[in-house]
Design a protein that fits this description.
Belongs to the GST superfamily. It comes from Candida dubliniensis (strain CD36 / ATCC MYA-646 / CBS 7987 / NCPF 3949 / NRRL Y-17841) (Yeast). By secondary structure, this protein is an alpha+beta fold. It contains seven helices and four strands, in the order βαβαββααααα. Helix content is 53%, strand content 7%. Helix 4 packs across helix 6 and helix 5 crosses helix 7. It is globular. The termini are far apart.
């Protein structure tokens, strides 16, 4: 019997990191994109994704909370650190990537692609935030560290790859990687992890950052 249903937004990194988690660890969780049904809206009037409903009626929203809950279903994974300090640091990076990172990518990309009304001031603010995060991560790897926390890949790295994978492909492009070379090395290393099953093996990022067509 399935352990529940995960409702997702197909291309959102907040959702795709969870679907990858389900597939890689073979969790018995159904994945659904049916977030417009009357039953879903009745249970979740805010229509937030991702959303998890367990087979016992347990309900959970927010990608970090769902990710940690899913990881609790896996006997051995080593994705949440080896001690309390590493665990806290992983949550710190997850929070930054999920809040400032994901919001800034969506806020800039949706306005530059026409999904939201164009507003240069707002776009610039979001791009500044993404560059601030890029600088923070680039500085993190100056000492030669391979991963965000500790000496092995963590859930923070996995989420970071999903976020920047789509941000680089749709918005930031190669200029961002050239500007932050330590970050670029980390992205290449982490995205080649077996968890992603070759998703980024042959990916080509745009030569230029996305600009408004008008």
């Amino acid at each position: 019997m399935s352990q529940g249903i995960l409702y997702v937004l197909k291309f959102s990194p907040r959702s795709t990191v969870l679907t990858d988690l389900i597939k890689y660890y073979k969790l018995d969780i159904e994945i659904s994109t049916d977030t417009e049904s009357d039953s879903f809206i009745k249970q979740f009037p805010l229509r937030k994704t991702p959303t998890f409903i367990g087979n016992d009626g347990f309900q959970l929203t927010e990608t970090i909370a769902i990710g940690i809950y899913f990881l609790s279903m896996i006997p051995i994974h080593n994705l949440l650190g080896d001690n309390d300090q590493e665990y806290a640091s992983i949550i710190r990076f997850l929070s930054m990537l999920n809040q400032e990172g994901a919001m800034s990518w969506a806020g800039a990309f949706f306005r530059l692609s026409g999904r939201l009304p164009y507003n240069k001031e707002i776009i610039d603010e979001h791009l500044i935030m993404l560059n601030t995060i890029g600088q923070i991560l680039d500085t993190r790897f100056i000492d030669g560290s391979d991963y965000l926390v500790g000496d092995k890949i963590s859930y923070a790295d996995l989420y970071g790859v999903k976020l920047f994978g789509i941000a680089l492909y749709t918005l930031l492009g190669e200029p961002f990687l050239k500007k932050y070379p330590n970050f670029a090395k980390w992205f290449k290393r982490a995205s080649n992890h077996e968890f992603f099953r070759g998703q980024y093996k042959d990916i080509k990022f745009p030569e230029q950052q996305l600009t408004y067509p008008g």
